[in-house]
Amino acid sequence: MDFLNALVVFLNFVFVPGLAYGAQLALGALGVTLIYGILRFSNFAHGDTMAFGTMVTIYATWGLQAAGITFGILPTALLGLPVGIAVTALLVLATDWLVYKFYRKKKAVPTILVMVSLGVMFVMNGIVRLFIGVEEQNFADGERFFISAGDFKAMTGLTEGLAIKTTQGVTVVTALIVVAWLFWFLQKTRTGKSMRAFSDNEDLALLSGINPDRVVQVTWIIAAALATIAGVLYGLDKSFKPFTYFQLLLPIFAAAIVGGLGNPIGAIAGGFVIAFSEVTVTYAWKKVLTYVLPESIMPDSLVQLMTTDYKFAVSFSILILVLLFMPTGLFKGKSV
Amino acid sequence: MSRNLLLFAGVGLLFVLTGVFQSWNLALSILLMGLLSSIMALGVNIQWGYAGLFNTGIMGFTALGGLAVVLVSARPVPEGWAAGGSGIVAGLVIGAVSIAVAVQVWKRMPKGMGRNLLVPAILIAGFMVYRWVFDPAVTAVEANNPASAGNIGGLGLPSLLAWPVGGLLAAAAAWAIGKTALGLRSDYLAIATLGVAEIIVAVLKNEDWLARGVKNIIELPRPWPVPYETDLQKSAEFIDWATRWGFDPQGASMIVVKLLYVLLFGLVLLAVIWFSERALHSPWGRMMRAIRDNEVAASAMGKNVTKRHLQIFIIGSAVVGIAGAMMTSMEGQLVPGTYNPLRFTFLIWVMVIVGGSGNNWGSVLGGLLIGWLWLIVESLGPALMGQLTSMMAEGTLKAHLIDAAPHMRLLTLGVILLVVLRFSPRGLMPEK
Questions:
Q1: Chain A residues touching B199 at Cβ < 8 A
Q2: Measured between beta carbons, which residues in chain B are less than 8 angstroms from residue A48?
Q3: B83 contacts chain A (CB < 8 A)
Q4: Helix-helix angle B24-51:B347-355, to 10 degrees
Q5: Higher per-residue confidence, A333 vs B364
Q6: Residue A176 and residue A23: Cα distance in Å, rounded?
Q7: How far is B349 from chain A (nearest CA, A)?
Q8: Which residues on B lie below 8 Å from A41 (Cβ)?
Q9: Average model confidence (pLDDT) for chain A?
Q10: By CA distance, what is B405's nearest residue in A?
Q11: Ranked by mean pLDDT, which of B75-79, B279-283, B290-294, B312-316 comes out on top?
């Protein structure tokens, strides 16, 4: 019984939140890694693209709510999501046409492109702050829990409860659908195949008649969609605040690099590696240990390796370790 | 040359106009921030302009400079130090030693299972001993009068001494980052420095024993020879002098203090420029530019590219650290919450790019010009928006637009950066 209680505490405070957070990071890292694979630079504006997409979705959600449309027990934001994706896709396509295209034609070095993406980040950040402000926004509605802690206790008779928030469930299911679709697209469709060819060997792809402009446009649209979905899921699960989205850049990059930049499977694995490390290192394990350790050797402290304020330090340390010992990442990305 | 002089004259005119139309006090405040930003921009220019290193952690080095001021010149807290100062130092030493031992073991032992097990074991054991020594010491220090102290205190030494110490702290951090991230892809340095900056600020915010965290350290002493305004206003000599020239003593005291700071910062700025110009035109500087322009060719000529990169990364970060220390000692307080990457990292980048990367005077021009823009938009933006919206009916939209006006500057700066990168990538003052 004690063991079951310990397991439930672990699931409730470590596994389920880590799973949801990992899915959000994985979607973000997929966007970064796709841009890196096709366009060959680290896109610093990705965090703010997420913020922009989420903002548009929030406006769409408010519009729907005002019109009296809701999504039953699920958050209304899921209905607003297509609008967010469409507007964000238009924005990044416009950015590409106005800004990045010039440097691509000139074959600028990656560092210049990174710097250009900083400029884009500034502009997007400015737009988001101008429209929605810097305050925190909560836009989750619908049912709050799939299973609440009380119901779980009543159902199983355990002293500890397992709560699964609707947003956590929605996150994992959405991420599964998106990832499945993305891999189907990359493996089976003509456009997806040409994208992979372009990423593997640009010159060869051009020689075999692949239209580079089309590949780039499709990449931007997919990246915008991934960024918006990741941003909305994160916002539903926690809350929306522009500055937090900028800070998400670090764990997202860490996830993409840990998996191997340019490798989609690596991005997903990296997202979960980073998320679970963050949660396990910053969780106070005392509550789990009370069930599995005998009273006599129970430690007094909270058994917390680091406070949650240092969660960036966790993703950063993993990033450094990977850079030192396997610079191409777990799944052999293309970067050295 | 005349073009460059004209540009500087133009920026000077902006400051004069601010003085005439707004107030000299405001113009001097903006000038001070401009000078500090120029020094930071010089540090970044050393890294980017001379060596092509992309550092996005300027905020972290600035904050380390600020921490140096607290450690060196803040009021000592003997009770706090006695409660656990030695334990904290011992804990930090244990942490550092266990990392160093692990690194040496990794280097010297042959590859294989033994090394793969021993190194993590050393690190884990080191971490546990570190927590065992460090945690009780921290609790003891923070328990000492938490409302006004709760930290280990400073050394109570003069503020000027903290400036080089700030440089040293930043240099030490740069060494650690450079050792790991240099020599890999150029983007990795950008990502690693971005992370380090966030971590440094997180440490400042959360480690109360160090600099009281978000409770802030106030009343840091001023650097010699800058007096306090209130002392000036009490001094009969000063009042006499001010009335003789027809100044209001209170306003004059503020101006005099600011002018002294301008002098002090100007001297540091000139010293940094002098050193970097000398370095740039020495054989060392030529080697650096050769490495920047073609790494492969330079390393074929026998230059150790990674080592030179590490060297210049440390020097540039130290300059930023000095500027950070200067800023904190001018403000007289360390407020970790004000360290914001947009203001302290990316704004400096805009200055370097707009001024002209690779040109030291360009960085100064960029620092003064963009610094002026950044602060003037803060005071003019809402007023301008008020004018623009004065025709509109009262309502939420109008209120929202006026509220949002300060955010316009991010947008403006982003557009400036993109336009300069696109149409004049060599900046206002191109490298010769």
A1: 310, 312-313, 316
A2: none
A3: no
A4: 70
A5: B364
A6: 8
A7: 9
A8: 187
A9: 89
A10: A130
A11: B312-316
According to DSSP, residue B226 is labeled P
Contact B180 A324 (CB under 8 A): yes
Other beta carbons less than 10 A from residue B410's beta carbon? 23
Q: Is the pLDDT score of B184 beyond 80?
A: no
Specify the residue for token string 């003052």: B429
Provide the ipTM: 0.86
Reduced to 3 states (helix: H, G, I; strand: E, B; else coil), residue A239 is coil
Question: CA A315 → CA A135, A249, B61, distances in Å?
Answer: 26, 11, 20
CA B236 to chain centre: 38
Q: How far is B345 from chain A (nearest CA, A)?
A: 11
- Count contacts between A and B (CB, < 8 Å): 131
Q: Which residues of A touch B417 (CB under 8 A)?
A: 118-119, 122
Which residue is listed with tokens 């300069």?
Answer: B420
Domains of chain A with bracketed CATH: 2-325 (1.10.3470)
Residues of A in contact with B45 (CB under 8 A): none
Cα separation, A3 vs B191, in Å, equals 42
Report the gap between the CA of A317 and the closest CA in chain B (Å).
9
What angle (nearest 5°) sits at the alpha carbon of residue B89, between those of residues B83 and B95?
A: 135
| Residue whose pair of structure tokens reads 């209001």 in the numeric block | B248
The class of domain B2-76+153-238+246-423 in CATH terms is mainly alpha
The β-bridge partners of B218 are none
- Cα first-last separation, chain B: 11
- Tell me: pLDDT of B58 over 90: yes
Q: Which of A307, A282, A315, A314 lies closest to A28, judged by CA?
A: A315
Distance CA(B153)–CA(B78), nearest Å, equals: 7
Contact A115 B353 (CB under 8 A): yes
Residue B1 has pLDDT above 70, yes or no: no
Q: How many CA atoms lie within 13 A of B230 on its CB side?
A: 0
Do the Cβ atoms of A114 and B198 come within 8 Å? no
Give the C-alpha separation, A287 to A150, whole Å.
Answer: 18
Most A CBs within 10 Å: which of B45, B115, B185, B343, as the mutation test of the A interface?
A: B185
Count the alpha carbons within 13 Å of A208 in the hemisphere toward its beta carbon.
9
Do the Cβ atoms of B418 and A99 come within 8 Å? yes
Within chain A, residue ranges assigned H as helices are 2-10, 16-39, 46-66, 77-95, 101-106, 110-132, 149-156, 166-188, 190-200, 202-207, 212-237, 242-247, 249-259, 264-282, 286-292, 311-325
**Nearest CA-CA distance, residue A161 and chain B, Å:** 32
Q: Which two tokens stand for residue B41?
A: 């921009």
Instruction: Give the Å distances, CA to CA, from B172 to A26, A92, A182, B132.
Output: 34, 40, 44, 26
The pTM for the full model equals: 0.89
